[in-house]
Here is the input.
Amino acid sequence: MPYALIFDCDGVLVDTERSAHLVAFNRMWREFGVPWSWTVQQYAATLHVSGGMERLDSLRSDPAFRSVFPLPATHDEWLRTIRAWHRRKTEIYIDLVRHGRLTVRPGVRRLAAEAAAGGWQLAVASAGAEESVRAVLVSVMGRALSSRFTVIPGNGAAKKPAPDIYTRAVTELGRHPWECLAVEDNRNGLLAAAGAGIPCLVTPTAVSRDHSFDEAELVLSNLGDPGGEQARRYGGRSSLTPGGHMGLADLAQLITQSALRRETTHHV
Here is the structure.
């Protein structure tokens, strides 16, 4: 039975946080003449907040930021300021993506192609701006394969860890949550999928490796590629240990095990 495979974007398809998002934020501030930048460690700490606008807004309560950038007199002025920052940051980010400054994470293109060939539905559910998500998707998958994806952006939805974006994904795909599998890279994404009732496979990055992933079906270093980088098991509720890379049968097994666990829990 073909299922639905739903990828997050940043951190799952490509490890964009350090190589693109952080670069774009810091370049944007230089262009605006704002004497501020995030270090890798500082940026990693902001990732508990989903969404670029939301991360910018969080600077209102950062004493270090306020010491170098006096806040505007009104909240409306502050919102106009960060919207302008975010627009320019998105432009820089998309330029980085289109110029191939990103490294595709192992296994994502291969597994998406296998899923498409096997009749699975494909989607990307991301809190990122839709134009950014689509640029990454085309860069990673190519135009032909990316056209098979349904893109569910976070526009107007509550950000992860709220389940809204995954609830929307299930509706748009015409599926039940237990017929889907989400692939995430951090705890907020895992909680969003779990909140929507969707089993989740986690492939953390360097900036999210220390997060708690207790609710995940499986936690792997990456999805793996035959003859390339191998997937290493970090944990998860499933007993599945892939032989170096995830295949469609492995994904289906995670979905089946999750459904059986849910049925057993409901009958206890």
